[in-house]
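We keep the chain:
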Amino acid sequence: MVYPVLRTFWNSVHVIKPRNVETFVGLANFKELLGNDFIFWKAVGNTAIFAIVATIADVLGGLLLALALFSGAPFVRILRVVWFTPVLMSYVVVGVIWVWIYDYDWGLANVILRSLGLGSLEQSWLGDPRTALWSVMVTHIWKWLGFNMIIFLAALYALPSDVLGAAELDNCGWLAKLIHIIIPLLRPTIVNLGVLSFIGKMMIFDLVWIMTGGGPLWSTETVSTYVYKRAFDWNTFDLGYPSAIAVLWFLIILAFIFVLMRLLRQRDRLEF
């Protein structure tokens, strides 16, 4: 585990050509990356939007689904299986299914719009730079919503029954119980799921690569797909520059985690 990390740091300060020809260039790769590489900054923006929006939607959606099942919605077992099934599918299967759904001519999305008389809203969902990123995001949320639901459902069933029972005896309504009892008790689960989900989405690669390959016009390019292209797809014959991208992104994620943990610890101290 240590060697690949150290090797990536080593590569980032070199130009590495075929047959292991290495030339030390210092911080030249990082200067080029920060100063002249607009595709990198486009990828950073796309990744940040993807991570923030999809994390909020995943966590909030999973919580709402779990609350619906916990409150005694009909067909609980069937719904639990249906919503969790996408989690068991590989990214390849999910990506191919949703590419079909988004197809302009015969995809389900446009077919439904036409059947509802909303043909003017038809889109080339994955071919239009304005909708491509959001379309991939919807697919990713669909895949992982059930996972968050199961985690929240387990946390809900683990809540102390005496506290919930006391609230019932005090004639506490469902909304008041949710706001003042359930959500505060679920806060550690919400925070942990949010952090893990955000970190995972900052490294998103598989689904984007399968559905769009980073296009069109870099509208779905993420940092991970850009690293792969610079290393293996563009025939630049240099592993140094993509390694610099990977190192910089690793440091950004590490800094984010550090700052977030500090903020959470300070908040816990203030509360207790």
